[in-house]
Amino acid sequence: MGKKIIHVIGTGTIGEPLIGLFVDFREKFEIDEVTFHKRTPLKGDRAKIEHLIGRGAKLAVDEDKVKDFESLGHKVSFTADEAIERATVVIDCTPAGNKNKEEFYLKADGPKGFIAQGSEFGFGKPYVRGVNDKALVPGEDRFIQVVSCNTHNIVTLIKTICEDDDGYILDKGVFVCMRRSNDVTQTSKFVPAPMVGTHDDETYGTHHARDAQYLFETLNIKLNLFSSAIKINTQYMHSLWFNFLISRSMSKEELVDRLLANPRVAVTEKRYANLIFSFGRDHGYYGRILSQTVVVLPTLAVRNGNEIYGFCFTPQDGNSLLSSIAATLWFIDPDPEYVDKRLNPIRRWIYREI
Ligand SMILES: NC(=O)c1ccc[n+]([C@@H]2O[C@H](COP(=O)([O-])OP(=O)(O)OC[C@H]3O[C@@H](n4cnc5c(N)ncnc54)[C@H](OP(=O)(O)O)[C@@H]3O)[C@@H](O)[C@H]2O)c1
Q: Is the minimum distance from the CB of 287 to ligand 1 under 6 angstroms?
């Protein structure tokens, strides 16, 4: 293989830390170059862009915006089209991944693979690190959708709690996603009142359970899932209530042991989202917790032997970072040992306890 180049499109809540992480770990991931695309030239974003360039990433912009970016003092290294064509892996971190796929990615021969994020249903095979890695087919899957952060949480709980040696013991899974209003990086859509979501999907309620089902379908597993969502007036973290009806009895000890045994699950005694968020700020990678979920142990309950209840928090822009990095490494070399080994340097942010 020639030069290994990672190209990130979008510098928002997901793109910005991902670009930073790839440049920081370039050598350990054995990557030659990190490039990124910024769409809008903005004075307010100048410091962010210069910081990313200073750390070693190279800026690409649309051809008709080169002068605008240069007049802000930025060094533009590539046009958007050039950057896509010369990349090994393209990671779309915009809410327009499907549109970009139609307009650009399907026409590009250079990259080995393309990754899009949570909102881009249908972009490619849905993926969560540690849940359906074996569903990725080398040479066949060129488009991967890293599903949303709450879907990461849901599918990880299902796999951890409900997978037995001879299959899944889940009869029904119900979830309430209590979503934070917006990220600390975002300034729009804040209304200081809880807003309940509608159940637009007759079968699954909201996209969270639907996406979880589509992800399990990549493993030929059909589940009975339903989710609801409510947006609440906090910027800290998403919270998730879950209820599993399972086909055999499970003790509370077994439930806890299962959660403790999964290295991608963090457990906590903390019941406040701000304390989990604050742990991320103090100990995480630039504030990010890379665990798939943070389960609150004192909230776990088992009723009638086969009904499981609990609350957890979603590391909203950390769990999808981990899956995006793992999927990128998989495109570079699909050998599971290669991916595992390359992920070692960032494992210290995949917490077991918070
Ligand atoms: N936020 C989270 O916690 C989170 C968690 C998991 C998954 N996701 C998913 O990640 C994706 C991005 O979310 P985000 O929260 O990072 O969004 P965001 O903070 O709003 O940032 C969006 C970025 O995309 C760029 N952009 C938008 N449309 C574009 C286009 N057509 N072409 C090129 N660039 C474009 C914007 O560029 P300019 O500002 O330069 O115009 C901006 O940098 C979504 O699919 C979302 O579902 C988000």
A: no
The four Cα atoms 116, 147, 290, 161 give a dihedral, to 10 degrees, of -160
What's this model's pTM, rounded to 2 decimal places? 0.96
Q: Identity (one letter) of the amino acid at 106?
A: L
Mean pLDDT of 268-276: 97
CA–CA separation, 271 and 130 (whole Å): 26
What is the spatial distance between Cα 92 and Cα 96, in angstroms, rounded to a whole number?
Answer: 8
The per-residue pLDDT for range 154-164, each reduced to its tens digit, is 999 999 999 99
Condensed to tens digits (0 to 9), the pLDDT of residues 280-295 reads 999 999 999 999 999 9
Q: Which CATH number fits domain 149-314: 3.40.50.2000, 3.30.360.10, 3.40.50.2300, 3.90.1280.10?
A: 3.30.360.10
Q: What is the largest CA-CA distance in the chain?
A: 67
The neighbour count for residue 257, using CB atoms within 10 Å, is 10
Rg (the chain; Cα; Å) = 20
**Which two three-digit tokens encode residue 215?**
């992800």
Protein residue whose Cα sits closest to atom 12 of ligand 1 = 94
pLDDT tens readout for residues 75-116 = 999 999 999 999 999 999 999 999 999 999 999 999 999 999
Give residue 49's pLDDT.
98
Nearest Cα to Cα of residue 183 among 350, 25, 62, 16: 16
d(CA 236, CA 315): 10
Q: Please report the atom of ligand 1 found closest to the CA of residue 186.
A: 19
Q: Counting atoms of ligand 1 from 1, which one is nearest the CA of 120?
A: 45
In CATH, which superfamily holds the domain spanning 5-146+320-349? NAD(P)-binding Rossmann-like Domain (3.40.50.720)
Nearest residue (by CA) to ligand 1, atom 8, is 118
Q: What is the per-residue pLDDT for 104?
A: 97
Average pLDDT, rounded, for the chain: 97
Residue 1 confidence (pLDDT) above 70:
no
Contact indicator for 314, 240 with CB cutoff of 8 Å: yes
Q: Is 121 in the pocket of ligand 1 (CB under 6 A)?
A: no
